[in-house]
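Just wondering, does anyone understand these tokens?
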Amino acid sequence: MSDFVIVGAGVVGMMLARELVQAGATVSLVDRVACAQESTWAGGGIVSPLYPWRYSEPVTQLATWSQSSYLHLSQDLQEETGCDPELRQKGMYMVDVEDERDALAWAARFNRPMLKVDATHLYSREANFCSGYTSALWMPEVCSIRNPRLGKSLRASLEKSPRVALYEHHEVKQLLLDNGKVHGVRTAQADITGGKTIITAGAWSGELLKPLNISLPVSPVKGQMMIFKAPVGTVNRVILMAGRYVIPRNDGRILIGSTLEHAGFDKTTTQQAHDSLYKTAVSIIPSLANYDIEHHWSGLRPGSPQGVPYIGDVPGYEGLAVNAGQFRNGLVLAPASTRLHADLLLGREPVIDPAAYYLEGRV
């Protein structure tokens, strides 16, 4: 029996496990597939909400804390595991922004670095960007991280700890409930018990709570993406235009994303999305028409109202908690979401006021 059973080994589940074991707790981490194989793997890895001024203050609070923590987190993980998450602090351009005035006002209010720059600034750094633009918004501190490698390094970090038991390919059949107290989960292979059970299963979190007659408003939102293999330097930093983005990797690969589709748990890729993503790619970076599409895939985001996650105990059930609903910002919000939750679970002073994320009154 461990101190905590965490159901869902994506970036939120793994970071929460890491926070807890670093504080001396023992953790059983359970996932129906392998670690980091769902939305953690499928996302783009921009360490900022897209158009961050359009989100509510609870999202901004988590994002701001997380953005500053990724620098030391990526360094720590590389030193611990030898796996480089490839954090790139190259900044982000946002082009053709309709509510530019709101963006600059938001940046001033929250003291976030953002500038309106001219064409020389833009094209001197991104020579392959489509022609004809005279200005852009520039956020120099925005990072991107190679999310599959982040997942790999987090798993390696946990695997090294004697305080962690990994249960991959263990699909949860039910929560173990006794007189209103949850004390673990039942899988096809075994019962896994602990002092507290925490649901961090992303888009599947609501499904796990349905048998308890809890309607958690977290639902799957499909996103399709594609990747080109291009020469290093074709794109140097994140570029956001018309709601979509290009993200460069260190090896020259360039990600294009993403769609927003309400299709239940269907992860099938479609020709329509393929064509739309390709059109987006060559409209932002015309020279991508010269390079091959390496892969086209989809993943399921944990959609929630306004993208504000649910973090904390589940009302009416002792020993049960949730950390889910980060929507499009799972990687962005994960460090703060998990540090905050660890503070609550361990009785520490919270790094952020937790009231906005509690389930009480929201479910």
